[in-house]
Design goal:
Distance between the termini: 37 Å
Oligomer: single chain
Strand content: 25-35%
Order of helices and strands: EEEEHEH
Number of helices: 2
CATH class: Alpha Beta
Number of domains: 1
CATH topology: Ubiquitin-like (UB roll)
Length: 99
């Protein structure tokens, strides 16, 4: 689906397409990488770049920090990843949200 009101974060053209992507992510402990499928993403037809917005990257990183990653398979869908039970309610080590 094309949304002409969204500007590409890289080239600033107004031709982003909302899409789903496959990404590879290193676990917070550095023990291994996993594949995450169906990740909400954007694709720019002008610069040919596919990416995830910073808020979504933070959401994924927080989730991986807050769950038991030993139980994750090598490949998991974004939806399945976000449904994993958390060991903590939030990332208490992220001080970027405190003012």
């Amino acid at each position: 689906m094309t949304n002409n009101s969204l500007k590409c974060d890289w080239c600033e053209e107004l031709n982003l397409q909302e899409t789903k992507a496959v990404v590879h992510w290193e676990l917070p402990d550095g023990s291994r990488a996993i594949t995450i499928t169906n990740v909400p993403s954007y694709y720019c037809d002008h610069c040919k770049f596919s990416y995830q917005r910073e808020d979504l990257v933070k959401t994924i990183e927080d989730q991986l920090f807050l769950i038991s990653t030993e139980l994750l398979p090598v490949s998991v869908s974004f939806e399945e990843l976000m449904k994993q039970p958390r060991l903590l309610k939030r990332n208490y080590f992220d001080f970027s949200s405190f003012n």
